[in-house]
Design goal:
The complex is a heterodimer of chains A (271) and B (245). Chain A has 271 residues and is of the alpha+beta class. In chain A, helix 4 packs antiparallel against helix 5. Chain A contains eight helices and ten strands. Chain B is globular. Classes of the chains: A alpha+beta (271), B alpha+beta (245). At the A-B interface, helix 2 of A face helix 3 of B. Chain A: Keywords: Cytoplasm, Nucleus, Proteasome.
Chain lengths: 271, 245
């Protein structure tokens, strides 16, 4: 994308009907480190890559519990993500207080999307620079949604956002048809394998990723490092064949994204 | 409460006006509601009377209404406040329907919403002068609860408001059991309503029974209970109490 005379204000349309500021906000999401979500009929798994500013610091938190039945993974400006998570928690708890009943996730994402839309139509605001993968339950089972800075939201069987997410998406596209009936364990395994795709050859260790799960009879919680390492161990034992094919595929699909996503180009506020 | 109203301060005048519009006493009131859980859902009974103090002024008031797809609300107390509550719930269920997303408010949610409304009004010293009974069925589960005008709220297998608390509850405690058939449930409610008819002066002999099951709500046509007034003690009521009437 190149600078042009229509991209200064979020309230300026381009002649081709685009709002460049909103699109730039979506670029910020692509710069953040990867977040992945997948769902079966009864469970949703969220996973992300742990990136730290430097070896000295701890990694940024990218997955948040919104309620026992809703969790969110973010990519992009984490500060914006934190603020939106707080909003989601607030909406959820207010609903629980008034109705003694969990807020259906489908309604929460609409509230979130409407909130994002406001920022695309006020000259004194800017769009949120964060993409949210919202996983949660409602009366019809488990759902996964992606909320975009543009104010759009979509429901997915599986999705990945952030840098090098294309590799994960390719992996998920191959498998998604079986996710609906997946067992809880298979779903977790697929999530971690998808995370591995985004690491581009770096060895997958449990310290590099965070995984959280929620389900129809399972409140939202994080998996601890041991549990993650155990899953990694089940497939890292056959490294040569699997990694060989995947790397070749991933390499082919990557050129477009690699442009701005090199480690040195990431702005400090984005994770 | 008296206080001087400074003319410059417009807000004080507004507050004074608001004060005089707080609920102080009810005017047109409905008497007891009795409700029980049974095999397929919930049964609720009420008469159709609206009293204006001691005058039985209105004899065709429906004090039970369906709310949304899954709930039935019965109210005793101030009828206009009941109508106000129906307006709130109408708005609530309308917004819920507009979502059109496969989710809907069940009886538990409506009961809790009403509890919040009643309690908040009580805190402002401006109560809705009602005791509400909320029954419903959703996803095969029956629900029956009650909220009072001060926000006291609970669930139970059988509830009664007003005089029903004193006259119907003992009968229900003795004779209610789980999985009553529809016929037995109606018989039990009629037994309670008959006692109320004899002993509650604001009750009239024109009642409705409402049923809510997974399929929905049906409110019966109004009908009367058979009563017996030939008890020997009714013939000479003052025989054992000289000077009374």
């Amino acid at each position: 994308m190149f600078r042009n005379q229509y991209d200064t204000d979020v309230t300026t349309w381009s002649p081709t009907g685009r709002l460049f500021q909103v699109e730039y906000a979506m670029e910020a999401v692509k710069q953040g480190s990867a977040a992945i979500g997948l769902r079966s009929r009864s469970h949703v798994v969220l996973a992300c890559v742990n990136k730290a500013q430097s070896e000295l610091s701890s990694h940024q938190r990218k997955i948040f519990k919104v309620d026992d039945h809703i969790g969110v993974a973010i990519a992009g400006l984490t500060a914006d993500g934190r603020v939106l998570s707080r909003y989601m928690r607030s909406e959820s708890i207010n609903h629980s207080f008034t109705y003694e009943s969990p807020l259906p996730v489908g309604r929460l994402v609409v509230h979130l999307a409407d909130k994002a839309q406001v920022c695309t139509q006020r000259s004194w605001k800017r769009p949120y620079g964060v993409g949210l993968l919202v996983g949660g339950l409602d009366e019809s089972g488990a759902h996964l949604y992606y909320n975009c800075p543009s104010g759009n939201y979509f429901e997915y069987q599986a999705f990945a956002i952030g840098s090098r997410s294309q590799a994960a998406k390719t992996y998920l596209e191959r498998r998604f048809e079986s996710f609906g009936d997946s067992s809880r364990e298979d779903l977790i395994k697929d999530a971690i394998l998808a995370v591995r795709e985004t690491l581009q050859g770096e060895t997958l260790k449990s310290s590099l990723c965070t995984v959280a799960i929620l389900g129809v009879d399972e409140p939202f919680h994080f998996l601890d490092q041991e549990a993650i390492q155990k899953v990694i161990d089940t497939f890292e034992k056959v490294p040569e064949e699997e990694e060989g094919e995947d790397e070749a595929e991933a390499g082919a699909a990557q050129p477009a994204e690699q442009g701005g996503a090199g480690a040195g180009d990431v702005a400090p506020m984005e994770m | 409460m008296t206080f001087t109203i400074p003319i410059e301060n417009g807000d004080a005048v507004k507050i004074a006006e608001a004060e005089s519009q707080r609920t102080l006493y009810p005017y047109v009131t409905g008497t007891s509601i009795v409700a029980i859980k049974y095999k397929d859902g919930v049964l609720m009974a009420s008469d159709m009377g609206g009293s204006y103090g001691s005058t039985l002024r209105y004899k065709n008031i429906e004090r039970m209404k369906a709310i949304g797809k899954h709930s039935l609300l019965g109210a005793s107390g101030e009828i206009s406040d009941f109508q106000e509550i129906l307006r709130y719930l109408d708005e609530l269920t309308l917004n819920d329907n507009m979502w059109d997303d496969g989710n809907s408010l069940g009886p538990k949610e409506i009961h809790n919403y009403l509890t919040r409304v009643m309690y908040n009004r009580r805190n402002k010293f401006n109560p809705l002068w009602n005791t509400l009974v909320l029954g419903g069925v959703k996803n095969g589960k029956s629900y029956l609860g009650m909220v009072s005008m001060i926000g006291v709220s609970f669930e139970d297998d059988h509830v009664a408001t007003g005089f029903g608390n004193h006259l119907a509850r003992p009968i229900l405690r003795d004779e209610w059991h789980a999985d009553l058939s529809f016929e037995d449930g109606v018989k039990l409610l009629e037994k309670c309503m008959r006692v109320l008819l004899y002993r509650d002066r604001s009750a009239i002999n024109k009642l409705q029974i409402a049923k809510i099951t997974e399929e929905g709500v049906t409110v019966s046509q109004p009908y009367s209970l058979k009563t017996f007034w030939e008890f020997s003690s009714f013939h000479n009521p003052t025989a054992s109490a000289e000077g009374s009437w």
